[in-house]
Write a structure and sequence with these properties.
By secondary structure, the chain is an alpha/beta fold. Helices cover 27% and strands 20% of the residues. Helix 6 links the parallel strand 4 and strand 5.
């Protein structure tokens, strides 16, 4: 596949797969298959990131061959898995991963974090941009973020509805938006208080974690115009931010005197 001409950074990619269907409190926090991540990995490679895969899923040999060193795990490198995991989780330039215990480690070192397949909804990680699993009601309609983050905040399943792992398209859109707009000194995304009215029993405020604009777009929710925090925000200029297919467009008013 297409790759960058030189490596610019390391991306720790943490994939979680634990618990049987009967162990809902464990299995509901597992994420997507390796196959669903491949398009996002190709994109990360073009942006100069070598992906270090940790967690519960093994890389298939054909994927290792395809990426030619830009996608590795402990097995493919022939090194100790625990040491490899600790290095990737604490020394990578960015972290992209799912809601297992290991995903708490990157925040210790202030590593920019994109949390995918986040579930149950109340939880998040320090400084993370969170893209939740897609929850649908009994009619198949996406449940609003207001309800997800209040009524269903501590739910491990949706009665009569469904909870779906992120698809390849959703993952690619979330990763693209995160890479294009993140900054190293401030969490990227939309503050939960700009989305949820009233009290909520979640970790977002204390963790200084924000919601992924790409997640809100995926469930058909309109974005608050001036609530996205990113590296090029200008306090003196209001702008409209829109996400379409994981990409944001910005409109900044003309300077005084311009027509």
């Amino acid at each position: 596949g297409e790759t960058a001409t030189s490596r610019l950074g390391l991306c720790c990619l943490y994939l979680r797969d634990r618990g049987s269907a009967e162990e809902i409190e464990t299995s509901s926090r597992s994420g997507s298959s390796v196959a669903e991540y491949l398009s996002a990995i190709r994109y990360l490679n073009t942006q100069g990131y070598q992906c270090l895969v940790t967690g519960d899923l093994s890389l298939p040999p054909d994927a290792i061959d395809e990426f030619g060193g830009w996608l590795v795990d402990a097995t493919s490198l022939g090194i100790d898995a625990e040491r490899f995991s600790l290095f990737a989780l604490t020394e990578a330039d960015i972290f992209i991963g799912e809601a297992g215990g290991a995903s708490f480690l990157p925040g210790i070192n202030n590593i920019p974090t994109l949390l995918l397949n986040n579930f149950p909804p109340y939880q998040t990680r320090r400084g993370a941009t969170a893209f939740l699993k897609i929850c649908r009601d009994e009619l198949g309609a996406a449940i609003s973020p207001q309800r997800i983050l209040t009524e269903y905040a501590h739910a491990y399943q949706i009665p009569g509805g469904s909870v779906s792992p992120n698809t390849a398209t959703e993952i690619l859109n979330a990763v693209t938006d995160f890479i294009e707009n993140r900054r190293s000194d401030e969490p990227y995304g939309i503050k939960i208080d700009d989305i949820v009215d009233g009290a909520h029993e979640t970790w977002y405020v204390d963790a200084q974690s924000h919601l992924s604009p790409a997640w809100l777009t995926a469930i058909g929710h309109n974005l608050p115009p001036a609530s996205v925090t990113d590296g090029d925000a200008d306090q003196k200029n209001e702008r409209t931010v829109t996400v379409r297919d994981g990409r944001r467009t910005k409109e900044t008013p003309d300077a005084p005197g311009n027509t």
